[in-house]
Write a structure and sequence with these properties.
This protein is an all-alpha fold. The protein contains three helices and no strands. It is globular, with a radius of gyration of 11 Å. The structure holds zinc ion. Zinc ion (ZN) binds next to helix 1.
Length: 70
């Protein structure tokens, strides 16, 4: 997958947008069809991202990392 997050900033390494960008979301949805597994995977990403993106309100992070996957 080309659309990986830069772990220092959580921008996409490929398209320089906030990660997960649209292609990354698409990839996550197709590669992890089980919604519970997908939620667990995103929860782990959110845990890492929350340190980097500590300035963002929690609701923004929730929408960005978890809400779209439902
Ligand atoms: Zn991207």
């Amino acid at each position: 997958m080309e659309h990986q997050p830069d772990k220092a900033t959580y921008y996409c390494l490929n398209c320089d947008k906030d990660w997960p960008c649209d292609p990354a979301r698409e990839y996550l949805l197709t590669s992890t069809p089980d919604p519970v597994q997908l939620a667990m995977r995103l929860r782990i990403e959110l845990e890492d991202a929350a340190y980097v993106l500590a300035h963002e309100p929690p609701v923004v992070l929730f929408d960005r990392f978890l809400k779209w996957s439902r």
